[in-house]
Amino acid sequence: MSRIIAHLDMDAFFAAIEERDTPAFRGVPLVVGADPLGGRGRGVAATSNYPARAYGIYSATPITTAWRLSEAARLAGKPPVTFVSVDMQKYVRVSGEVMQIVRRFIPRLEQASIDEVYGDVSWTGSYEEAERVCRRLKAEIHAEAQLTASIGIGPNKLLAKIASGWRKPDGLTVVRTEEAEAFLAPLSIRVIPGIGPKTEAFLKAKSIKIVTDLRALSLHQLEALLGKRGLDLYQKVHARDDSPVEEHSELKSIGEQETFESDTLDSRTILAQLDGLVRGVIDRLHHEGFRSFRTVVLTVRFADFVTKSRAHTLAMATDESAILRREAMKLMLPFLDRRENPHRKLIRLLGLRVEKLSCEMNRVGLFDGLFTLPG
After folding, report:
1. Which of 220, 232, 286, 352 could cysteine-pair with 277, CB 3.0–4.6 Å?
2. For 216, which DSSP code?
3. pLDDT tens sequence across 180-198
């Protein structure tokens, strides 16, 4: 029997939770992200609801741009945007609640992110029955969590993911095997995973704008244009994807990053933010079902946008926040003096992530080994 795969994507997840929890936010343009500080803010929008998207504000839009677009709307007589800070602990908790609902309907799942999941629904035996199951799932999420989800159903993960974004919000789109190539043909090349803004611009300069244009190229032509990536894209534009739904997907890393409100070298400000990143990373580690990590990676972006990363791998795995905090501080301290920051440049952004993740525990204690904090 052919595979049938579903991809569920929560609609404007962070913003939808805020709208659910605060009635005053419902129906107004809403952006969850950094504080815009009257147009002088730093950072980006984490997400936006659909009224805010109508203004051109999307995930990763610089918060200063979001503010300008909000002001332009206000001056045109439209509602201004309401800006809300990110509450990641709440979003992680709600994500867990939603995933519990999904598991009641689809036993075999691969969670791709905090707000999206793949499910193998081949056991339903037909697209018609898969659609019925997914409609009941959507209704249950709405009833229990007061949130909406969009679902795509197709013969593979590629088609299911693209289909889930087809009729947002609150959509359900089915693409059968025999419909797959025709479904993709008129779509922008940007819908194909692996084609980002730079590749899109490169291909558009060669008059390759939609999937049909890309499909007209031979395997050798695509390889000549894009190297090894061309081989992968050739399969994708022909609707081919054999990747399985992996119940324990191999997430390579978990990380958080934060932009300071103003560039700084103040150690108290920096270490306080680092402590917040530690808490966020540990929360996400546990939410994703991992029990340990071994590698800690710190990223520092200076005011001139020069970015450096430093990493350390532990001898044994751990999930202790105290150990992550200790290792993050060890990596951070040289950036506060001339070892990693000889010109004493101000710092704009900090990022912290963990790698070498495992669902098993081989714990290292906080005081195992010798360590002395610098004076």
Report:
1. 352
2. T
3. 999 999 999 999 988 888 8
Long-range contacts (CB closer than 8 Å, 24 or more residues apart) made by 365-372: 366/320, 366/322, 366/323, 366/326, 368/316, 369/315, 371/326
Active-site choice (19, 110, 116, 327): 116
Sheet with 172-174, edge to edge strand ranges: 109-113, 116-120, 5-10, 149-154, 172-174
CA-nearest of 217, 171, 170 to 192 is 217
CATH code of domain 253-355: 3.30.1490.100
CA distance 64 to 33: 11
pLDDT tens digit sequence for 289-325: 788 999 999 999 999 888 899 999 999 999 999 999 9
Sorting pLDDT into bands at 50, 70 and 90, what band is 368?
Answer: very low
Distance CA 333, CA 341 (A): 10
Q: Where are the domains of the chain?
A: 15-84, 185-237, 253-355
Length of the chain: 375
The domain 185-237 is placed in CATH, from the list 3.90.1170.20, 1.20.1420.30, 1.10.150.20, 1.10.3210.10, at 1.10.150.20
116 among known catalytic residues: yes
